[in-house]
Amino acid sequence: MNTFSQTGLLPALVTAVDSLGYETMTPIQQASLPPILDGRDVIAQARTGSGKTAAFALGLLQKIDVESIRLQALVLCPTRELADQVSKAIRRFAVNIPNVKLLTLCGGMPLGPQLASLEHDPHIVVGTPGRVQEHLKRGSLHGGGIKVLVLDEADRMLDMGFEEAMDDIVKRIAKHHQTLLFSATYPDSIRAVSARMQQDPVSVSVEETHDETSIEQRFVEAEPPVKADVLSRILTHEKPEAVLVFVNMRKDTEAVAAELDRRGFSALALHGDLDQRDRDEVLVRFANRSCTVLVATDVAARGLDIADLPLVVSYDIAHDPDTHTHRVGRTGRAGATGLAILLASSRELNKLRAIEERVGTPLGRYPAKPAGDGRKVLNLAPMKTLVIDGGRKDKMRPGDILGALTGEAGLDGKDIGKIDVYATRAYVAIRRDLANKALERLRAGKIKGRNFRVRPLG
Ligand code: AMP
Fold first, then answer.
1. CA–CA separation, 254 vs 240, rounded Å?
2. Cα separation of 353 and 334, whole Å?
3. Among 60, 148, 254, 451, which residue has the fewest nearby CB atoms (within 10 Å)?
4. Which range marks the domain in which residue 42 is found?
5. How many domains are contained in the chain?
6. Pair 235, 189 in one domain
């Protein structure tokens, strides 16, 4: 059985899946969707890219009774980014089911608007454990009608200290519910959560072919003083369109990004101290190709929806194999090939051995001095981002910005990249060599007949 229509899914869901162009089920869907639809508890080893979101989203949508104005499904995610991504996916699958109400409830967002939206219970809530727990405690959310509880990236939730909140949430919701647990790794702590929260779960684990076949893992021995050199040689040699560089300490994100910037790369740091707006800006620039190198800690990179990276570098070797597995999972998604390179000093070879044990084979060496012609070249990203101080609140739409740039400003559409419109700001990527021209023109002209402040980022 490998098509969605054979599983007994509601026609509305089959149509939605069809219109998304999914022809066959992914291995994780084939293995988990039937028991999910049977109402069984499921524990699945699955990571981003496996199609896990569709598996639980379809499962929970099948069970929603739209007529009943009660919370019926709760999805817990480790981060706001993942929660947003999951909410979007569920909405896409729910397009043919009228009046499904879904709410995303995450920490770090103001409580007031959330309370206002909770005047009537939604059918589905997707959120981070701390905030969901708070709403259940306050009584702004009612868990008594929950039929399905999903723990997405459960290992990450434990890493982030959400275990108590998760346990407390389970105490506050309907006693009889189905629990679907998805986790990229299966440490003992996850087994313990499953033992506490699940009843006779069906265990699903799918050999992910791209683990061995399309992600190439290499290591390079590098002592701390030469790490920046080694990294810039790797980047110059591989010329990745986008690369995620992992460091272990928050302070090193800035230091490594600054060093790369000095060497002519378009690099930015992503760490937990950034406020929401700075974090959004970093991610916008990475996604719209005006920054090629993102230097991040594991915590900061959690839940990021960054797919198909050609290269991931562990500037600092991961402290444990699970973390390493997560890092490597950022590359080679959806069948694309990827390269993961880790830097290890001579004192860290024991950690490398532990990783090799997990991978199952010794890692090949990356040539310490990859061949190159030795010339110093600039490695700037192809695009540059302009920020416009106007957004959805000004009824600004991507088309307005595109129109202003191609109309009055005389740019060609092909030189304009991704446009992201937020509540009060908008970001547009422009071919780097044309960014100044675009900036001048936008400043001189109008968007939607109004003057907005425009400035370059970075
Ligand atoms: P996920 O692992 O849930 O993050 O999904 C990874 C990506 O695969 C998403 O972009 C989905 O839209 C896509 N996807 C999920 N299931 C299928 C399928 N059966 N066929 C094709 N693409 C899929």
1. 20
2. 28
3. 451
4. 4-205
5. 3
6. no
